[in-house]
Amino acid sequence: MRNEASSVLSEFQQGDLNAFETLFRMHQRAVYGWILRIVRNPATAEDLTIETFWRIHRAHARFQPSHGFEGWARRIATHAALDWLRTARGESELPADIAAPPSADPAIGAEIRGKTAMAFQRLPPKLRIAAILSVVEEQPGKDVAEALGISVAAVKLRFFRALRLLRKDLQQQGITP
Amino acid sequence: MNAHDEDRLKQLLKQAVPPAEPEPERDLWPAMLRRLDAKSAAPALLLVPWFDWALLAGLVGLAALFPASIPVFLYYL
């Protein structure tokens, strides 16, 4: 089984389309889920999944089978999502009036949730990704660091900068978190 | 920002931006194949990245402005 997987990775590296299809079918769900966590829109996540695998296909010669496929794919997916956030910035992804999640804190009203969501959208994309993956999606720091191509300490730094900017933005709107 | 503020902001963020729930998606392989076919059908010139064209334009411009630089370029080719 392990040899078979290793052989698929080697064949993919040599540009074999069947090996690429095998990897696509094995990892499309995970890549889609990762991107959806960042962009929060199913249609955009599908488009970016295709874009990610297109970049993977183009970069097959640079792939190192010994480093594994999943982390590499996640990193490329994160960059594709980051590129999208930089251009589209997901302005229309989160409505101002956010519906309360099932576990909503009754002390936090719809207006505050809406303003927080809008303030979150205004964060720089790099900080936004670190905050959403670390806090909202509760992904392991190691995975987030690997996907962003930075250290775990740098992820924490980005996350704290995101919270600081968020607090400042909310204070300017008259909300004291 | 103290630990209490941090926890409060995290809580606020989780309430404002609920976690995504990746639902089972359709098979994207047919869409991937269309993308691969479209790219392979595109003229080779269109597949050259824009920055390669920009670099070429820059080199041509430089050579036009400073013809003496042409032998230097040729030397490094």
Structural class estimated from helices and strands of chain B: mainly alpha
Mean pLDDT of chain B: 82
Strand content of chain B: under 5%
Structural class by helix and strand composition of chain A: mainly alpha
Low-confidence spans of chain A: pLDDT under 50, at least 5 residues?
95-100
Main sheet properties of chain B: none
The total beta strand count of chain A reads 0
CATH architecture of the largest domain in chain A: Orthogonal Bundle
Order of helices and strands of chain A: HHHHHHHH
pLDDT < 50 runs, ≥5 residues of chain B: none
- Tally the beta strands of chain B: 0
Task: Name the CATH superfamily assignment of the largest domain in chain A.
Answer: RNA polymerase sigma factor, region 2, helix turn helix motif
What Rg of chain B do the Cα atoms give? 26 Å
Would you kindly provide a written description of the structure presented here, covering whatever features stand out?
- The complex is a heterodimer of chains A (177) and B (77).
- Chain A has 177 residues and is mainly alpha-helical.
- Chain A has two domains: 86 residues, Orthogonal Bundle (Rna Polymerase Sigma Factor, Chain: A), CATH 1.10.1740; 63 residues, Orthogonal Bundle (Arc Repressor Mutant, subunit A).
- In chain A, 69% of the residues lie in helices and 0% in strands.
- In chain A, helix 4 packs across helix 7.
- Chain A is elongated.
- The radius of gyration of chain B is 26 Å and the shape is flat.
- With 77 residues, chain B is mostly helical.
- The mean pLDDT of chain B is 82.
- At the A-B interface, helix 2, helix 3, helix 5, helix 6 and helix 8 of A face helix 1 and helix 2 of B.
Compile the SSE list and pairings:
The complex is a heterodimer of chains A (177) and B (77).
Chain A: H1 2-13, H2 17-39, H3 42-58, H4 70-87, H5 110-121, H6 125-136, H7 141-148, H8 152-172
Chain B: H1 3-16, H2 29-41, H3 50-65, H4 70-76
